[in-house]
Design goal:
Number of domains: 3
Largest sheet: 8 strands, mixed
Oligomer: single chain
Order of helices and strands: EEEHHHEEEEEEHEHEEHHHHHHHHH
Shape: elongated
Structural class: alpha+beta
Number of strands: 12
């Protein structure tokens, strides 16, 4: 599997604004192929193909007929409805291998390879393997969620899908997509005002934190305190990988309107600039620039938006270096101060040569250019010069000697 992408989660800060952090999304190897007397791969493969055909043709009744129970039939019918509402293209399903688990009768679990693409938004297809439970000797599907691996949101149950221009929001019940659409539209406008472009924005809203973790394919509890995450849809960081914003609904819904908009815009910066694919860019630039855009139109003084880093400077003194990647670990202490510090680095750059120069160096580094070279070319500064200017900014903010 190609390199797993950064996921960029947003965490609530004490000033009712939100920044975001990053951590690697771990790749879990699929179980080795197994066989059992129960499994009939040929029958199951035919059932998977029938489901694929039903999704492609929008035939909810045909999909429902593949379920082994009323609950399974309702889910499969909803999957077809979701695919139609999302405008999915390039949908393919392929039986891969058994997982080794059987139900003691004529049913078993197996991995099914899945590809899909949101038409008009994703430039390439997402690819993953989803665990299916088969019944009736493989002629029926009992479940798509057997408690392991990644489960794309559109396979998890009925979705409410809303579109407005270049924005698409898909929300699981009981969430309603129209609630998030205005913030997503404003986020798109705010990002385009700074970085330009015509790329669309897709926001996915699982019903709860458990659904968020399943959609991302990570262990439960990892992002329980996270408001939003931007990540490759299938976890694979290669050029063209679809990047969506995922909201942690219970956390996001608890935010006040200003904080919620900051979160959405911050994450939209990541999504619209393909930031999760930029493996070499300094984390402070990725996160600081996203905050720069998100806070650009927020009418709050620096004493509020950088309160934590100012307090830390007054207690511990000025930092010796720009924030390190390790400082952005979601489990790290003083995380809010780290994000504020990163934001102030970008503010320092913009104050020195203007917003356009900041945007240019951000784009150059995300595209793979060396940061030190881009800084020298665009700002006439070395990293030491930038650090010194940033320290002066921090000293002035905190009211301490430089």
């Amino acid at each position: 599997m190609p390199g797993s992408g950064r996921v960029l989660p947003a965490l609530l800060l004490c000033v009712a604004l939100v920044a975001s952090g990053c951590s690697g999304d771990d790749y879990v190897a699929p179980p080795p192929p197994t066989t059992s007397e129960v499994a009939d791969p040929v029958a199951a493969a035919a059932t998977v193909t029938a489901l694929q055909d039903a999704i492609r043709s929008g035939d909810a009744d045909a999909a429902s007929g593949l379920g082994s129970s009323p609950e399974a039939s309702a889910l499969l019918s909803a999957v077809v409805g979701n695919a139609t509402a999302l405008g999915l293209d390039d949908v393919s399903l392929r039986y891969v291998t058994e997982t080794g688990r059987t139900d003691g009768g004529d049913g078993w679990d197996a991995q099914v390879a899945l590809t899909w693409r949101v038409s008009g938004f994703d430039t390439a297809s997402s690819r993953t393997e989803v665990p299916f439970s088969f019944a009736a000797g493989g002629s029926r599907i009992a479940a798509l969620d057997v408690g392991q691996g990644r489960l794309p949101l559109w396979l998890g149950g009925p979705l409410d899908v809303r579109r407005a221009g270049s924005v698409l929001v898909a929300a699981a019940e009981p969430a309603r997509a129209r609630r998030y659409l205005p913030a997503a539209r404003r986020a798109l406008d705010q990002v385009r005002a700074v970085v330009g472009g015509r790329t669309g924005l897709v926001v996915e809203v699982p019903a709860d934190s458990a659904g968020l973790h399943r959609a991302l394919g990570v262990e439960q509890g990892r992002y329980d305190a996270i408001a939003a995450i931007t990540a490759p849809v299938d976890g694979v960081a290669v050029a063209g990988s679809p990047i969506h914003v995922f909201l942690d609904r219970p956390v996001y819904d608890a935010l006040d309107p200003v904080a919620a908009q900051v979160v959405m815009t911050h994450e939209a910066v990541h999504a619209l600039t393909d930031a999760p694919l930029a493996q070499r860019a300094p984390m402070w630039l990725v996160e600081g620039f996203a905050d720069y855009v998100a806070l650009r139109d927020v009418d709050l003084p620096s004493s509020r938006t950088a309160a934590q880093i100012a307090r830390q400077v007054r207690t511990d003194g000025l930092p010796d270096a720009l924030p390190a990647t390790s400082d952005f670990d979601p489990a790290a202490s003083h995380l809010g101060a780290v994000y504020e510090a990163a934001w102030l680095v970008c503010v320092t750059l913009a104050e020195h040569r203007g917003e356009r120069a900041l945007v240019d160096v951000y784009r150059q580094v995300l595209e793979g250019d060396d940061f030190a070279a881009a800084l020298r070319s665009g700002f006439g500064w070395s990293e030491r010069d930038l650090t010194a200017a940033w320290r002066d900014r921090l000293a002035d903010l905190a009211g301490v000697a430089g």
